[in-house]
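Example 3.2
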Amino acid sequence: VKVKIPFGNKYLDAIFSVPEKKSTYGVILTHGAGGDMNFPHLVSLAAYLASHGVLCLRFTCKGLNISYRTKAFKAVVEYLKLSDDYKVSGVFLAGRSMGSRAAASVIRQLSQDDDDDYIQGLVCLSYPLHRPKVQSKLRDEDLLFIRCPVLFVSGSSDEMCEKQLLEDVARKMKAPKKIHWIDKANHGMAVKGRTTDDVMEEINAQVFSWLRENIELE
């Protein structure tokens, strides 16, 4: 179901992937610095979640400014929270690359604003912990503030997320967290000798089983 989500004086394009039965929980999903909500990995994950009973709302927000992307993500969270058609009792925020940074930033902001437990967790696909090969400055400040459960799905050869560095950050985090490494995958989740569909199946199954561990899904 295509929708337009008000954001300032314009609208964000978004698509609901709706399960057959009414869903108690939803996932809000967005893309990285390039591309949009029709990035194949997001389309695949949204379809997988909906077919397993989880409402998924994915949206496009162009712009390479992280605070702008964060504001847009916040607007989408508010939109879903107030939606009569798709009432859910809780959501997980999910993003790929820069989208996962925006999601982490929203969770940090909202957790300071109010204490309701509408936001259930964070899913980071290819979290960009540092610039390619520049490992001195880490983008970990939001992660260290978050208290809700966090799932990282990253490639073990991701040039923007050195394996040992992410494991070190995870150890410092207060939140319950899990890291699933896609063996030999790069930042775009490409693995030599494996098809995109094969890699996506692994990612989708990991995300869903983690969601199921954190909420009571049939």
